[in-house]
Amino acid sequence: MLLSNIECRKAALDLLCEHDSCSKAAGVLALGKNPSVLIEPSTQFTPTAAIPGRPLKPILVRPLALPKRSMRSIDGRAALIHALAHIEFNAINLALDAIWRFANMPENYYRDWLKVAAEEAHHFLLLNAHLQSIGYEYGSFSGHDSLWEMVDRTKDDVLARMALVPRTMEARGLDASPQLHNKFMQVGDLKMGEILTIILRDEIGHVAIGNIWFNWLCQQRKLEPIATFETLRNQYAAPKLRPPFNMEARRLAGFNEAELALLN
Question: What residues have CB less than 8 Å from 48, skipping those under 6 apart?
Fold first, then answer.
């Protein structure tokens, strides 16, 4: 049963504070399907619990501390699926944070990010279910916090957030998708191939949403987008983008030819 008169931004903050990963994902899906959700763009909120809410596992380590495992073993395949599930869990949190944190944006901004949150929740549940089907679950391996670290670094400026999370960190997922798909096909994991196809389709849309709002904010502030992006990338020490690049997916996500030329 859908509850009426739920305020989207407050609900997003409450879900961000939720520790249980599956409860968080289910709550986000329910919020995204609620046709009665209200949006109050001007309200300011203060978290009453630590954010983001996380389960006790996975234990977080530095990226270089994660062990390398062969895809030829079930343990190695599960570790890679787990890494993807961890990215999707963090992506739920970053979308929820984009909703509650930044006030006075147009209503469509919040609806866009609620759509992103719901799709990330769907991705997480798909990956966790597949993990469970092979004897593992989210939390079976350690993870790292690089994505959330950039979310936290950009918490004071929605322009920086749009530039460096969807357009940079998440866009790297577009580039990695073909190689990941090939790896799972080579070991005969057709289910993961199906899941990765869904994720790529949706992530193109998520990066496109980042592009839309980044360019909108640049227009509002009378800033030139390419120069502004470079300034923000240096200011916030965003990771340097490295090939190979999925140019087709990036075009579908709204990067223009001048931006793509700078990748070469």
Answer: 17
User: Can you name the residues that pair with 60 across neighbouring β-strands?
Assistant: 143
CA distance 164 to 240: 11
Q: pLDDT per residue over 119-151, tens digit each?
A: 999 999 999 999 999 999 999 999 999 999 999
Residue range 205-257, pLDDT digits in tens: 999 999 999 999 999 999 999 999 999 999 999 988 899 999 999 999 999 99
Residues whose CB is less than 8 angstroms from the CB of residue 162 and which lie 6 or more positions away in sequence, other chains included: 210, 213, 214, 217
Which residue ranges form the domains of the chain, and what is each CATH number? 8-261 (1.20.1260)
Residues whose CB falls within 8 Å of the CB of residue 169, separated by 6 or more in sequence, listed in order: 146, 147, 150, 238, 239
Task: Give the contacts of 52 (CB within 8 A, at least 6 positions apart).
Answer: 16, 17, 90, 93, 96, 97, 148
CA distance 40 to 13: 13
Tokens of 197: 């196809």
Q: Over the stretch 18-36, which tens digit does the pLDDT of each residue have?
A: 999 999 999 999 999 998 8
